[in-house]
Structures are given as structure tokens and as C-alpha cells.
Amino acid sequence: MPAIPLPALHASHAGTWLKDGNAPTRGCSKGEAINAAADTPVLMLNAPLVATRLGYPDLSGLDLLELYAFVHPAKFCVPTPKGLAHALGLEEPVGDDAVPELLQTAAGKLLETCESTDWVEREGAWSVLQSLARLRWPWAGVLAPHVAKPEKAEKWLFSRLPEWEEAPERPQPAQVVLRDEEVAAQLDALTGEGAEKREGQRAYARDVAKVFAPRDKRAQPHVLLAQAGTGIGKTLGYLAPASLWAEKSHGTVWVSTYTKNLQRQLRRESRRAWPSRRADGSQPVVVRKGRENYLCLLNLEDALQGGFAGRPAVLVQLVARWAAYSADGDMIGGDLPGWLGTLFRKRGIAALTDQRGECIYAGCPHYRKCFIERATRASAQADLVIANHALVMVNAARGRHQGQPPTRVIFDEGHHVFDAADSTFGAALSGQEAIELRRWIIGPEKGNRGRRRGLAARLADVASYDEAGGEAVEAAVEAAHQLPSDGWIGRLAEGQPFGPVEALLGQVRAVTYARDESGAQDAGYGIETEVASLEGPLIEAAQEAGAALAAIRGPLMKLGQRLEAVLEDAPDWLDGQGRARIEGARHSLRWRIDLLSAWEAVLARLGGPADPDFVDWFAVDRNDTREFDIGIHRHWLDPMKPFAHIVLEPAHGVMLTSATLTDRGDAGEDWESAIEASGAPHIELQPKTSSAQSPFDYASRAEVLIVTDIKRGDLAGLAGAYARLIEAAGGGVLGLFTAIKRLRAVYGRIADRLARAGLPLYAQHVDPIDTGTLTDIFRDDRKASLLGTDALRDGVDVPGESLRCVVMEAVPWPRPTILHRARRAAHGGGKYDDRIIRARLAQAFGRLIRSREDAGYFVVLSAAFPSRLLSAFPPGTPITRLTLDEALERVAAGPPSGDRAVEREVDEYMPWESQQE
Predict the structure, then answer these.
(1) Number of DSSP helices (H) and strands (E) in the chain, helices first
(2) Residues 6+ apart with CB under 8 A from 892
(3) Hey, how many other C-beta atoms are within 10 angstroms of the C-beta on 593?
(4) pLDDT score of 907
(5) H-helix or E-strand spanning residue 253
(6) How many CB atoms lie within 10 A of CB 65?
(7) Mind listing the pLDDT tens digit for each residue in 837-885?
């Protein structure tokens, strides 16, 4: 295929290369590369990343990723030269100097695709290209000769999307009992003929089956806590009884995860048990997420009709291309490339989703084609719903279910249920939250762009029909003007708050700065202080703010009553869609009324006696000394208490499963703490427990190396250690940090050095790439290394040679927050901390060995590593305290294996049974 003779530019930490048309590729300076890009559009891959490498943020050109998104919407591509080559069937470049020629060839291949009769994404391309040309998209002129005008006018996107159909509600499931032999047979069918029969997996599946038995007593579900070591095959282990129960009972099983990565894995594995479609065209398996994950078609229409301008408008056109080919409209973790939004610096993906809960339901002209409504209705008819912890808990708390509520729920990544409950059932009266409520009620102010509509606009027809309802809307809008508005933080800094809520937040800000003793003020981090011994002015301000919130809540409650009355005595003009819209409005009102009630409860507590069930604190959230929010926070001391009553009680069968469900202390698996953390004791329930050990040979396939000669606070030494370890391993290193500042500092010191050695380095919070895409890049290149924080410590699955070494910069101590201090005091002090740290270490170690063939080193750069934490690692794993030079020698010798004997001075954690001997 002919390469496109346009200038091509590639920049990495190792240098910069430029190819002028048909001329040979040459190395050049950063300044020369910037000038070349300014003179004429040049081909590049991931322009924001190239701009970061060159230190010139305004760089622009012909980005191959944008062209790929246009030609192949909803198709995966790792956004690297190697990934692009693989996606297009081209030979991958041998080195950095070969990349510019690859870019020319890739551009030629993509343009050639546009001329091919086999181009499956041709429909709609010409129309979108005309819009992109009017927006002066750099690629439009290049593409124009290659995208032929269709003989018939192309349909508008919104007329091409299919409509969902109503279906009768599913009857309640039949009461069935799963026999062990049935479960074993189903597991054999899912694992496939000739697959290894793992006894641990079979025992695990038998235990899971008990969760699906008929319930004996009301509000007493079957609850199972099942620990399954890495490699046990827990996904198929619980899908076997789940699919068998769904088939026999005609019921729905919900599997809840914490990470999007596991959701994708579950969707793949579920194909073993269910077809993609039933004979009637319905979906037996549906992925469900919160509304903020899906494309809002009304937002998209507004953006296409002028709501966006400049570069963001280009993004909207590319999203429209994707929407026509997307499987489910999921913009976050679905088939929209994760890198697409990062190519556009301003308003992006989030503005095209329903972030503010402003959906008008049946009042939307695209309601029948809505991706969210389609997924919601499909889940009501599904055998398996793959959701996330937050959605399951929020739906249960708000009673927002389409069809029957979930009665059989499997919480995979069960060690995160506590954190999800903590977030779901907590309350925060903050400036940002209050502004969102103001916008939801009032709508656009001062000429703000966008399709945001206030209550009056959303319920105009109802207000005109029902006088009392109209008065309630007017009263709510009037009262909402007392909430914070744009510019509130600046007014507080100047001591000029507007309205009672801003005045209260100003008092909170002053008290927090006055009382903070964390040392975070000078470091630029957020600060906080406990709610105690408050002075009179702050309590008075809280009372006035509470009265202002009550003045909003009252009209909203009245409006909800009027909407209910309209439904009961419906006017002639109220059709089915109108009913659905009013039901949606009632749901949104209940959500806001509950929110206001929670805020009023928080304010009523100020100045009064402490509630032992809750922890309250003030906080000023900051980023590099810049304040971005101020608030009053209230969390349950034990968030599993509301979880037990809201999620567990109504269910018939619930399982929490994970590889790290229990703490592994000196006495072995700590089931007592796991049971306490499950919430079951709050409903006087004793859950069943199950444990399946990992089949992996950690003793010969992994080693823990604790480096003892890197001083704490020695940033140069830390950076040098990371660089030398990555060089010794030849890449394939996952570096985990407990602080973003140190991550950035280490990355800045070593990235150029490693690139010159042919070892690319990527980093969370540095590279303008989303975390999921960074993981894809890391997985795709065995020489690459990746630095990150908490998001990479848990839920990242990179089997094989791409991950050969995990390096932690320090022991992951818990942050000493006020909330942590309270829970620490309530749950055993230092032992509570140790359980948290061991869990984090176990999760981080779990990234290293993902299959029987994997092998590698787990390195901790901390001399102060207490021996009591060593039990976090699997029994039998060799653990050595040594110097950095000794560690480098081990790592350079290659991953450990059963064939390579190494003399060690081992500080090894032995199984507790051995200690008893």
C-alpha cells in the first residue's frame, strides 16, 4: 500500500525523529520538531503525549489516533506505534527511528480502507466528514478524496439507532435446590472438554451453590464468605452454579465487581454459559453501570447542534461516529477507546454523559433509543447482570429497580465492599455538591451554555396544569438561590460569602485552617479537622444554613406529592411517555429530598453530643495549594451496618468472594474480622465460610526482596533504585507509589535515561492517558514499565512476561485521616492498621503471579518493613532482606523458577501450622 508522503514526527524520552515527505528519517532537536509542526500539519501518534515529550502544550497536527477513531469507530487499538501496527496488520517498528515511516504507512492503510468496498463502518462516514470539514479538522482535507459521497442520503444518527421494546415483568424465580453432581457437571461444561479438573475449583463451586437454596426465614439470607486464592478459577467457579440456577429457576443473578477490568473479564467468561442473544433476540447477559458511564443522546444532540465549539466539537463528531457502532453506549470502560477523550484537553467525555442526574426520561425525544434505558430494561429480563458495587448499593438504597430487585447477588472483589459502602452511605455538604443541587433546580444562569434545564423547564406542562405543583416549583427555585453559585471559593477567600450556606462554609474553612495539625498545609495537600468544641458563630451559621436547606426541601416534597396526585387523577393529555417522565421526575425528587435531609442531619449534629455510629469532620480539599472544595462530612463508623439492612436483608442469597477476603496473621486466616466486615452480624446472621488455596507454586515462582539500604526521604536514591531495577529486569516492572508527588519526581528523573536504553516508561498522573489505556500499553510491550498509585495496586490483570517485577516504594501505611483514626480506635488500634497494610500488600503481590507460567520478583524499597507484615505473602514464598546491589543481581539473573537454585538468607514467613510445631 502507498505510504502518505506527509511529514511525520515521533518524540519519546529517547529523542525526536522527523521524516520530511519521502526524505530519510533524521533525528532532530525539540525546537526543530516544534517549528516543523507549526509550519505544516505533520503526522504524529497521540498528539498530547508528543506535546508533553516536547514540552510544548499547544502542539497540533494530524493525529493518527483521531483518524483511526474515524475509520474504525468502536474498535480497539493500543495507542502506541506497536499497537497501531498490530491493529492495521503492519510490521511493528524496530526502533524509534522507524516510527515516522510507520506513521506514513499507517495513514496510507487507513485511507486505503476508506476506498475499499469491505469498509464495514462506511455508513455515516461521509456526512460526519462534511461536519468535520466545517470544523476545520486537519484530517478532513486529506480524507475528502478517499470517502466517496453515497448514492443515497445517509440517515441521521438518531434515526439509525434501534429502539428498545417493552417486555412483561419477569415472574419471581422458582425455588430450586442445586445438587452437587449437577454443579460439577455444569462446571465441566464451562471449563471445556479436556480441561484440568481442579478440586479446589470444584469445592468452591459446591459451596457457592448453597447461596442459591430457598431462604428459610424472612430477612435472613444465605450469606457465604468465600476466599479463593489467585488461580483457583473463581469466575467459572461461581458462574457454574449461577448459570444452573438461572436456567432452572428462570431468575436473575447479579454479579457485582469493583473494577471495570473484572467486568470486561466477566463478560468474556459468561459467553461459555450463555449465547450473546436468545432465540427471541433478547440478551441473557447484560452489563449495568451508573448513568454517568453512558452516552446521553440528548447531550450529544445538543453538542452536535452547536453546544460545543472548536476542538471539543471535533470530539463530538467522532463520538457520534462511535455511537452508531457501539454495542451498548458505554463511554467509560466500554468499546469507546479510552484514549479518545484524552486527545481533547477541554470539555470532553464527561460533558456527553448524564453527570448531574438531569435526565428527563420519557420527555426526551431519544427516550426510546436511550442506551441507559435499553440496558436497564434488558437487565430486567437477563439471566446474569454484571454490575458494580456502587450501583447495587445505590439502587437498593433508592429502591430504583427495573423489574424485580436483585435477590441473588455475588460480590466479586468482595474486599472492596466496605469501601464501596463507606462511599455510598456517607454524606457530604460541600460547596461543589450544593452548586450541583442549585443547577438541578434553577437551570442555566448568566448565559451558561449547554442543555442544562431547571425544574421549571423540565416540568412546564405539569406546572401549567396543576397550580399547586407550579407554585411548589417556583418556591423551590426561589429558595435554591440561597445555595452557593459560581465563584463561591473566591468569595470565601475574600471574606465575602453570599447566602447562608456559603457563610457556613466560610466558617468551616476558617476553623479547619486554624485547627489543622497534620502538616499538610505547607505541603499543599487537603486539610481536615474533627467536629468538636465549636464556637457560637459557627453553630449559628449552621442553624441558618439548615433553615435554608429546609426551605428548599419543603417545596420539593410538596412537588412530589403533586406529581403523585397528577398520576392518580391523570389528565387526558397524559400518555404513557408522560407517565414515565413524571415517574422519573418523582425518583429524582426523592433523591434530592433524601440528600437535603442528610445535609440537615449533619448540620443538626453541630454543637450537639457525638453520635457513636458516625464520624464527622470538616475538610478543605486542595490540589497543589489550590482549594477546590470545602465541606462537612459524615460517615458511618461501620458502613456495613446500613449495607446489612439495605442490601443483605431483602436478599435471599449473597456471596462475598475475593483472594484476600481474610487477613492472614500469625494464627492463620482471620475469619472473625472477615465476618465482622461483612455486615452479617448487624442482622444477627452467622455466614458460612469457604476457603480455597491458590494452586500456584509461589515457593519456586516468586521471591519477595526487601531492600534495606534506601533511606527514607532520599528521592535521588529512590529514583536511582527504580531506574536500576527496571534496567536489570529489562522492563516489565510495575512500580507502585503511596504519594503522587514522589511518583512524578521519580518519573521525571529516570524516564529519559530508560528510554535511551530502549525501555519505555509510562506513569499515571503524568502521561495524558487514562489508567485503562496505560495498562493496555503496558500489557502490550514486554519492555515497557508503568508507575502508578492505588488504582494499579488492585484489579490490574497483566499475565505473562509483560509483568515480571513489582516494586513498591514503601510500606503502604494508611493515611492518618480523622475517619481512619476513629475506626482504628474502634477496631484494635495497631492491629487494625496491620490488617489494612497486609491486605494492600497481598493485593499488590497478587499482580505478580496471574497464571501457572508467571514468575517474578516483588521488591519493597523500605528498610523499615516490620516482620509482622510478612504474613501478607503466600505461605512458603521466599522473603529476603538484602541490599540494592544484591537485589539487582537477583533480578538481572531472570525470574525465579524451580530449576534455578539460589542461596538465600531468608526471613521467610512460615505457615502458622509450622510455627505451632
Answers:
(1) 37, 25
(2) 728, 729
(3) 17
(4) 42
(5) strand 253-257
(6) 22
(7) 999 999 999 889 888 888 999 999 988 899 999 999 998 999 999 999 9
